Amino acid sequence: MNRLYTLALAFLIITACKHKSDTSSSETAPPAVVDETEIAVDSLLYFRHHYQQTDMLSRRFPGITLEKSMEIQLRMLEKELKAGARHIGWKMGGTVTDDSASYNPLFGYILDKNVIQQDSAVLAENFPSAQVEVEGEIGFVMKKDFQNGAKSLEELKAGIDYVVNAVEFAKAVAIPLNGNAETMTINHVMASGLGHAGIIIGAGRADIEEFDMENETVKCFIDGELAAEGTATNVYGTPLNALYSLVNMLPEQGIYLKKGDIIITGSLYKNPVIDSTCAVKLAFSSLGDISFSME
Fold first, then answer.
1. Source organism's superkingdom (predicted)?
2. pTM as predicted
């Protein structure tokens, strides 16, 4: 009997000690830290890669600042590069405005996997809701690094290899909460990459000193009918002004324009939307044509 009593007592003591240890451990363990920015980055990348839209930013970051939106986008870029993508350049947003006081330059990154070949078929299924805006743009390819930005337009022009025509496909990943436009700001769009969904880099080339920057025009034809037209002056007076903003914005984020980068600067017209089978041609006044079809 004494032996059984001793064994029972020992069992109770061990159990009590274990319970005390478990309780003490749970009471002293620090609470898990939730990285809201990391959640946003992973979520946005998922939706971008699956050609879907999300109201996540409007829900989780209703009052997002420009600084936070830049942080989220650049962390997305960092993860894309770690996964094997190659960064080839930038797009500018907020550049099409009639009022220079309202100019709000924003940027988005461009990856090699975003490039679509000219005269190829673009698949509607590769865009959210199977529709996309077609933007006629003027781009620049750089021939030197700008680690510290540029002090003047002349310094910037000296670092441009050539001017190029381009088409951007734009479709926002970020959407308003419950369809209420007031729940979404331009900073939400910035965080998600400014709606960049693809790019065609045209075959047109021009020397920066010979290119008539302010008078270049483009017409967009869909199935042979004129759908939109515009001039380079619609891009903040000249696309060169948009490039100048970018070259000086990036160093503030610890990055910079590099040799070989391509930068597109904003649409020259009010963008038409395509959402079904069609043939599209953009006719630039001096840089030539860019054609593609949608299936």
1. Bacteria
2. 0.86
